[in-house]
Design goal:
- This protein is mainly α.
- 66% of the residues lie in helices and 1% in strands.
- Strands 1-2 form a two-stranded antiparallel ribbon.
- The longest helix is centred in the N-terminal third of the chain and has 28 residues.
- It starts with 25 loop residues before the first helix and ends with a strand.
- The relative contact order is 0.16.
- The N terminus is likely disordered.
Length: 468
């Protein structure tokens, strides 16, 4: 593939290898230490709170998990993948041809997710996960007539009327359930196929993020981020949950808009819009992906993809509404259902900050350190992007803005009160866009930070039983 020229004014200039004035390791280590302290405080306070009142509705806060030290069939594979990425990942990311790097990163992410899931064994880790009483596969037979099921979908959200949906079906728009209905229709029914589908699509988000970062912030920063994306700690929850699939779909929507904005591709703009529309019907919280999408346009300083994007995006709600499901009618019922269950018991006073501790575990301490660098660069990046007469953002500024948009979306979800606990799983669509902050860390320490990332995932997966 021919290398893109950097003369296009919509593309940022490449940055030097180490951002001036911020190459020291000590502030990064302090930031990581603060992240670790937040986790420790959340664990201690959460354990005491849960033991005294049971209000947190989580046995091992801030995670929805129970203490269960164990190993399993996936343990040797997980250790091998982690060791290989730490030892060889940075060098391979620097020298592999771009397309091969994308495929390698995707394959490595799949290997990492599968191996972590298989620590619980094939049945408990993959095949059974999406078949439990709260999950989507429990209602496949109620969608024999899809239009009729969609017309009556809102009638079964709130607990009370006969036949109310399981928690995850009621808690999401019907696009999530329809995905598994369609898999069943084409002969890929059952928990095993559903689990593999979510893992493969979730892992593909790694390639999507790399494509977007390259388009917006240059290839050097994308290559630096690649090993961290492939070895993401939140892979523990990608395998196996539908939220991994949601994260992959959202990531490709952002990546395609980045391609549309930098390469003037009408097809990419339409595909991005369709995926965004579909993503909004996978989870009620994912309209917040509009923040990173808008930031793509801010970075590239173009509105050219907006019309085709919006036109394509609107086809999804139009189709669902004509079929009988109205998103805006269902959401208030979801809020009522949420407060009928654990959401009505879990205290906002703990989870509004406990969620952030869970997020620190999910993205890893290297990402926390990278976020420190992102926040340090935010004032100048924001001022530069908003000033109409300044040139296009530099590579580092573009990456800063993209990460900041994801962070703001995550904070909005947190403050909403509709994400009390389980955010290590639910916020995966936002976590994907925080991990590129690791590209701002000094090159010399990459292996150490990668080892820390892998260590978090391995410890969590081997010490607790994660459930939802």
């Amino acid at each position: 593939m021919k290398t893109e020229e950097r003369s296009d004014s919509s593309r940022p200039a490449e940055e030097p290898a180490a951002p001036a004035g911020r190459a020291g390791h000590r502030p990064d280590l302090v930031a990581a230490g603060v992240g670790a302290l937040l986790v420790a405080v959340a664990c201690g306070a959460g354990w005491a709170w849960q033991r005294s009142s049971g209000e947190l509705q989580a046995q091992w806060p801030p995670l929805l998990a129970s203490w269960h030290p164990h190993a399993g069939p996936g343990t040797p594979a997980a250790l091998t993948v982690a060791a290989a990425v730490v030892a060889y990942g940075p060098a391979l990311a620097d020298r592999l041809p771009w397309r091969r790097l994308l495929l390698t990163a995707w394959a490595t992410a799949m290997a990492w997710i599968f191996s972590l899931a298989l620590i619980e064994g094939w049945y408990r880790g993959i095949a059974r996960r999406l078949t439990t009483k709260h999950e989507y596969l429990r209602v496949i037979d109620r969608f024999d007539d899809i239009p009729a099921a969609l017309r009556g979908f809102t009638d079964h959200i709130v607990v009370g009327p006969p036949g109310n949906w399981p928690a995850h079906v009621a808690g999401h728009p019907p696009g999530a359930t329809l995905t598994f209905v369609w898999l069943d229709r084409i002969g890929l029914g059952g928990g095993a196929w559903a689990g593999v589908f979510c893992i493969v699509l979730g892992a593909s988000g790694v390639a999507a993020v790399l494509i977007a970062v390259r388009a917006l912030a240059g290839e050097r920063l994308a290559r630096r981020a690649a090993p961290f994306l492939a070895l993401a700690p939140f892979a523990v929850w990608t395998g196996t949950s539908a939220d991994g699939y949601f994260a992959g779909a959202a990531a490709w929507s952002i990546a395609l808009l980045a391609v549309a904005a930098t390469r003037r591709s009408l097809l990419a703009a339409c595909a991005s819009g369709l995926l965004f529309g579909w993503t909004c019907y996978l989870s009620y919280g994912l309209p917040l992906i509009a923040l990173p999408l808008a930031t793509v346009l801010l970075i590239t300083r173009t509105t050219r993809p907006v019309l085709p994007f919006l036109t394509a995006a609107l086809t999804v709600p139009v189709a669902f509404t004509l079929t009988g499901f109205a998103w805006w009618e269902a959401y208030p019922l979801l809020v009522e259902r949420y407060y009928q269950g654990a959401g009505g018991v879990r205290p906002y006073a703990y989870w509004v900050w406990g969620n952030l501790a869970a997020a620190a575990l999910a993205v890893g301490l290297a990402t926390v350190a990278g976020l420190r660098r992102t926040l340090t660069a935010t004032p100048s990046a924001a001022l530069g992007a908003l000033h109409p007469r300044r040139p296009a953002p530099t590579a580092e500024a573009a990456l800063t803005l993209l990460v900041l948009a994801a962070l703001l979306a995550l904070l909005a979800a947190d403050l909403s009160g509709m994400s009390k606990a389980e955010t290590e799983r639910i916020w995966q669509p936002f976590y994907f866009w925080l991990l590129p902050a690791t590209a701002l860390l000094p090159v010399r320490g990459r292996r150490g930070w990668l080892g820390a990332q892998a260590g978090v995932a391995l410890l969590v997966n081997h010490l607790v039983w994660t459930g939802w």
